[in-house]
Amino acid sequence: MSRTPARGSGGSARQRRRRMTAYGALATLGAVAAIILVVFLVVLFAPGPAARTGKSTTVVLRPGAGLSEISATLKQAGVIGSSTAFALAAEATGAAHRLQAGEYAFPSSASLAAVIGDIAAGKVVRHFVTIPEGVTSDAVMEILDHADFLAGVAPAPPEGAVLPETYEARRGDDRAAVLRRMMDARDRLLSALWAHRRPDLPYKRPEDAVILASIVEKETAKPDERPRVAAVFVNRLKAGMRLESDPTVIYGLTGGRPLGHGLTKSELASQTPYNTYVVDGLPPTPIGNPGQASLAAALDPLPTGDLYFVANGTGGHSFSSNLADHAANVARWRAIEAQRACPSPGAGKAAPC
Prior knowledge:
The chain is mostly helical. It contains twelve helices and six strands. It has helices at about 10-45, 65-75, 85-90, 110-120, 135-145, 175-195, 205-220, 225-240, 245-255, 265-270, 290-300, 325-340; strands at about 55-60, 100-105, 125-130, 165-170, 310, 315-320.
């Protein structure tokens, strides 16, 4: 008796073969994809070219630069080995549209992943401009002019208009904009200190406090002394006494540049608007740019009756409220000066002077 093949058995075999073929194709595609992924990861995280000189390579990416320009710039600088690989990696990681302009310093042999990550995160080189306390506005301009990472020209600020601090800037920042930040910082600080000033101060306007603070800044380098030095000058203003501050004389003679010698009698008698030995009250402008501590001292001086101070030989000053005590303090200081100029000889040696 003859048997007929079961219906559909041939079709099932064909389907099984097709499924096996499809599975094989998918496996092949998966293997290829895995290989591509491995290659991609190797290219992405492998060390890049070594720096041509030093331990890093500095590159400036201009604002508005597209992916192709950025790739070419990095390749030309020797940061990456292939501009095509960089562009493909940036697209594949989704960073292509987040790349930021600026100045970057890439370590030697940085990987594509590191380079792309730094640019996408905007990890630009940080530059700083430091304005020391008490410097004149001419000195501020010299500091800005010598900051070669800045661009443009800034107008000279009024004396005392800048807050001495350290300011961060980026390559290509405009000098005038950086200067404006310095001036705005001073205005904000002065406004806050003025609002909480002592009520009995002899100032008609905030600028008067800046003038006095600039004198305090030049008279002492010790932060803890500034409120007491400020008190002396405030007390003198209240009593109608002249300030008699040496730094004001120097500013009137040189614009704040060092004299190179001690003040002479003729210089102390010089007829300038800044010589507080011969003019009453405050000088017409600040004699430098006072820092935060001096501004705070001028607006909240120590409540003392001091009217005089003189150096004490330790880097600080001796204070007094009357002329007799001041004369004694001056005599002590003169003796210290004489001792320094003519020290005692050693045993068996003649005096040097």
